[in-house]
């Protein structure tokens, strides 16, 4: 505008020859600024509305937790044709209900002559498997530069709830367990996973089970499966007996506390199969043995101090039972599982020693109506 006062707009005033900053009259200044801000705010609101419409129209699919760490990679069906496959676990999806028996040995500090309580219980159990929405991706890296080897898992999330029916045996007799019918004795949730993309490993596995138990225990077990149209019940149950039953007579130096023969948990499963014709079956086996180079049983410090829970193993049978030659088939699920407890016990003669005792559970399920 130059330095001459005559060149300023008529409604501007210069207070001195040196001061060249114009001063608007206060009322007009406020009005102009208000109108300018109002128009700018309106333009911003219109722009935001347009942006929101665009975002809604092109919203990306939700990200899995690991996608925040590494970018999502879309694979074609040809590159991974089994992306959504549950493999052998597909038959387990849905609800199951049934009964079983539990045999457990617990430290009992109240008695000087016997520091162990042996307890056998009958229970009702409900088990539900739900399909996981997407394949789980574990990204890998080959250090020799040959490329990235990813692992893909798919499976079923499960919940397991057990309610006590009755106490079949307690030694010594204990009133704490005599009137607990209908109470919850076990709760567990976790996943059964199938390895969709097998890779070279020193100890290969195809299925795994992860479970969390409110006692303060978590398990991670690995294993495999078999599928067959021929089920030899006698052979299979004899194999289970060698893994899950107790030998007659003295058990690990302390005996069965006066009983001539320890309880045989798998006899319960044998009774469930009497008179049935099995058309096909799948066998699932899990273990936390150290040779798998992973997994195990993890406990809280309190549990480790009182009763150390060690190796865990489980065997499940999915059975299709035939109702005659032309009748419909029904499905059954049988299992036996055990975890080794290590605790201090008083053996014969009063000697105190560490004792290993299996906590064994057996059960039989059917599809609820």
Automatic annotation (TrEMBL):
Protein name from the UniProt record: Uncharacterized protein
Domain of life: Eukaryota
InterPro entries assigned to the protein according to its UniProt record, in alphabetical order: Calycin, Heme_bind_FMP
Taxonomic classification: Eukaryota, Sar, Alveolata, Dinophyceae, Peridiniales
Organism: Zooxanthella nutricula
């Amino acid at each position: 505008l130059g330095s001459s006062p005559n060149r300023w707009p008529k409604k501007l005033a210069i207070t001195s020859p040196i001061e060249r900053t114009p001063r608007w009259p206060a009322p007009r200044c406020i009005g102009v600024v208000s109108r300018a801000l109002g128009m700018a705010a309106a333009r911003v609101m219109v722009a935001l509305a347009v942006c929101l419409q665009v975002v809604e129209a092109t919203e990306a699919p939700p990200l899995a937790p690991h996608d925040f760490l590494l970018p999502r990679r879309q694979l074609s069906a040809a590159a991974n044709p089994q992306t959504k496959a549950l493999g052998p676990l597909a038959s387990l999806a849905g609800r199951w209900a049934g009964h079983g028996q539990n045999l457990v040995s617990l430290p009992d500090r109240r008695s000087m002559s016997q520091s162990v309580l042996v307890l056998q219980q009958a229970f009702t159990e409900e088990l539900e498997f739900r399909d996981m929405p997407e394949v789980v991706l574990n990204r890998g890296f080959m250090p020799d530069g040959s490329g990235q080897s990813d692992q893909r898992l798919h499976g079923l999330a499960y919940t397991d709830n057990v309610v006590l029916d009755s106490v079949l045996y307690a030694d010594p007799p204990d009133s704490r367990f005599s009137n607990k019918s209908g109470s919850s004795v076990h709760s567990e949730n976790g996943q059964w996973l199938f390895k969709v993309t097998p890779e070279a490993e020193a100890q290969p596995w195809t299925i795994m089970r992860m479970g969390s138990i409110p006692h303060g225990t978590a398990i991670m077990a690995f294993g495999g499966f078999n599928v067959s149209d021929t089920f030899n019940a006698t052979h299979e149950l004899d194999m289970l007996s060698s893994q899950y039953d107790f030998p007659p007579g003295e058990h690990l130096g302390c005996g069965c506390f006066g009983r001539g023969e320890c309880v045989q948990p798998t006899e319960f499963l044998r009774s469930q199969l009497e008179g049935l014709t099995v058309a096909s079956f799948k066998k699932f086996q899990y273990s936390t043995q150290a040779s798998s180079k992973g997994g195990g049983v993890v406990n809280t410090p309190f549990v480790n101090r009182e009763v150390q829970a060690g190796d865990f193993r489980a065997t499940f049978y999915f059975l299709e039972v035939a109702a005659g030659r032309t009748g419909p088939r029904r499905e059954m699920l049988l299992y036996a599982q055990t975890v080794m407890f290590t605790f201090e016990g008083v053996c014969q003669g009063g000697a105190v020693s560490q004792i290993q005792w299996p906590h064994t559970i057996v059960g039989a399920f059917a599809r609820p109506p």
